[in-house]
TrEMBL record:
GO BP terms, alphabetized: lipid biosynthetic process
GO CC terms: plasma membrane
Domain (Glycosyltransferase RgtA/B/C/D-like): residue spans on this chain: 72-226
Database matches in InterPro entries: LipidA_mod_glycosyltrf_83 (IPR050297), RgtA/B/C-like (IPR038731)
Coiled-coil blocks: none
Species assigned in the record: Methanobrevibacter filiformis
Protein name per Swiss-Prot or TrEMBL: Glycosyltransferase RgtA/B/C/D-like domain-containing protein
Entry's localization field: Cell membrane
GO molecular function: pentosyltransferase activity
Length: 595
């Protein structure tokens, strides 16, 4: 569906409905996150982006030079609001949350290219109702923003090859913005090239798109120039290049640590935020089982259909490909395609043993070759390839990221967010496959439903699922609170401690302060607070080393959890679970506040 077709009444109403869904869950999470006991106040990254936004708005804070190498888009947008006087955590929550609305609408439009209207709505609702998206929505983190922009980059590329090539200009520029939102969005680039490649296989129009593609890439490069100038002007290292070089040249092999099955094992938590436990059964577990059941059934149906397809064409004598010295018949092509699947699977299992970049390149080559041969086979037999190429694009999108993040040693369910759009696609594709299978079985048994009944059945299933996920997402966003497992104490106590310190020591900005909540206190005090690891003080040896370092650095205060015994420091003031410790050698005239 392109922008012209949006004007039709049905499409416009659907977009309005999906837009209101996005606004509703975003508003609820922003309100919830603004509560000190809830999501946004407890995450390390949130405060790094706030500190970065402060720096970009002109408020220089010493230290934390490494934040200049972070993804800049969200801090930059936040800094604009800061310059206008809206210096608050909620500003970041609103900016990151707004990308949810962008993503919800974009995903509906993307799914509308393949599915009927109601199923496209269902896919978008499912995607942004997954607990992993609800938990991290409007928290000040960058994953939702990068995912939303990736959705639009892929959608615009589809429009560029199906409707108007000029959309390619915009598609690559949007991808660059997605890259600046989070650097891993660069993995979407080969997916976009894959879409353009498929257009050539369909109608031989690759040459027609080359010029527009090149211009689109140039437009994307132009989008990069201001950021490049900023890095050069302030002599800031290009962080993502260093990271890419490290990933490309080093193996990630650490078998005792690197669990390549982590994201598959975490699917119940990603879907409903709970491990499956039949002794404590509730709505989230029901949704997890429902979604996993639909996907597994859809995969089984898909495998059966693919095997039948290969068997039907295995004995065809046709010469499928005859160019210069290369001659491939149907049987050879099918054998190569099976080989592609096996190699891709093997590279997933050994991705932790070799360079992830090498694995990605092998995967890209495999799926391009597989798609080329499959398209040749289908076209030679008069079968349209548009829908199968769309499915392969979604598979490539998903597998590109699952391969990358499975190989990466640092793992977290949050990294699955960028995979939720293709994941949601396979949920609704599985649902449609199940529906089609049921209809086929009815016909075989001569108990055919008429066409009207068939579509009513499918639409009824979609309406029921939409209702379930709407209730789940809205009730979840208005009731749940998420706390990181590394939380040492409540954010409210940290804020109380920082406010008290401002009045106790009016010269606090010129003092050296350490904390295991350094990023948060840097934001609250608007000065550098040297950060240490969250659990550092629980290890006696590390604690002694940090204490010695603090004394050598003439540290005035340490702000951390209660009950610590630090050599050279004494308890000054406690706030719930948080205590301010003062250097014994420091004397202050205004110590009357310490009561």
């Amino acid at each position: 569906m392109d922008f012209q077709s949006i004007k039709t009444k049905g499409n416009l109403l659907s977009i309005i409905a999906i837009f209101l869904f996005g606004v509703t869950i975003t508003t609820l999470t922003i309100i919830k996150n603004n509560n000190l006991w809830s999501i946004g106040y407890n995450f390390h990254d949130t405060y790094l982006y706030l500190d970065y936004a402060l720096r970009l708005s002109g408020v220089y804070i010493g230290g934390y030079e490494f934040i200049d190498t972070l993804s800049p888009l969200i801090p930059f947008l936040t800094s604009i609001a800061f310059r206008l006087g809206f210096v608050s955590e909620i500003t970041l929550f609103i900016i990151t949350g707004s990308f949810c609305v962008v993503g919800v609408v974009g995903l509906y439009l993307l799914f509308k290219l393949y599915f009927k209207n109601l199923i496209a709505i269902l896919g978008s609702v499912i995607c942004f109702s997954l607990s992993i998206n609800l938990i991290w929505l409007s928290t000040g983190t960058i994953d939702i923003a990068s995912t939303a922009l990736s959705i639009w980059a892929i959608y615009l590329t589809f429009l560029g090859v199906q409707k108007n090539q000029k959309y390619l200009y915009l598609g690559f520029s949007v991808l660059v913005l997605g890259f600046f939102a989070k650097f891993t969005a660069a993995l979407v680039f080969p997916v976009m090239i894959f879409i353009i490649f498929n257009s050539y296989l369909n109608n031989g129009s690759f040459k027609k798109h080359v010029k527009k593609t090149v211009i689109g890439i140039i437009a994307g490069i132009i989008t990069v120039i201001p950021y490049g100038a900023y890095l050069i002007n302030y002599n800031i290292p290009i962080g993502f290049i260093n990271q890419a070089n490290e990933i490309a040249t080093k193996s990630t092999a650490m078998p005792p640590i690197n669990n390549i099955y982590y994201y598959f094992q975490s699917l119940p938590i990603i879907i409903g935020n709970y491990s499956i436990n039949f002794n404590n059964f509730h709505i989230e577990i029901f949704l997890e089982l429902l979604i996993l059941g639909i996907i597994i059934t859809g995969i089984i149906i898909g495998i059966i259909m693919f095997i039948k397809f290969l068997k039907n064409y295995w004995n065809q004598p046709d010469l499928l490909f005859n160019k210069i010295a290369i001659k491939i018949n149907t049987k050879q092509a099918i054998a190569i395609m099976i080989g592609n699947i096996i190699v891709t699977g093997l590279f997933f299992f050994i991705v932790g043993e070799i360079s992830v970049i090498f694995s990605e390149i092998v995967f890209f080559l495999n799926i391009f070759l597989f798609t080329f041969l499959l398209n040749k086979l289908l076209i030679n037999n008069g079968i349209k390839t548009k829908r199968i190429n769309y499915i392969l694009t979604m598979f490539m999108w998903f597998f590109t990221y699952i391969l990358f993040f499975s190989a990466h040693l640092v793992k977290g369910t949050r990294y699955f967010i960028v995979m939720t759009p293709p994941f949601a696609f396979f949920i609704i594709l599985s649902l449609e496959s199940i529906n089609n299978r049921i209809s086929l079985e009815k016909r075989k048994n001569k108990q055919n439903m008429d066409k009207k009944s068939y579509f009513n059945f499918k639409n009824s299933a979609a309406v029921i699922l939409i209702a379930i996920f709407l209730v789940f997402s809205i009730s979840t966003t208005s009731s749940f609170g998420y706390k990181s497992s590394t939380d040492l104490y409540h954010a409210e106590n940290v804020i109380e401690a920082s406010n008290w310190l401002k009045t106790y020591d009016i010269d606090y900005k010129n003092k050296t302060i350490y904390s295991d909540r350094g990023e948060m206190l840097t934001w609250l005090l608007k000065k550098e607070v040297i950060a240490i690891g969250y659990n550092s003080m629980k290890n006696p040896k590390i604690k002694d080393n940090i204490t010695e370092r603090m004394l050598n650095n003439d540290t005035s205060y340490y702000i951390g959890e209660n009950g610590l015994h630090l050599n050279g420091f004494a308890k000054l003031k406690s706030f719930g679970t948080v205590t301010i410790y003062i250097n014994n050698k420091k004397q202050y005239k205004n110590n009357k506040n310490n009561k």
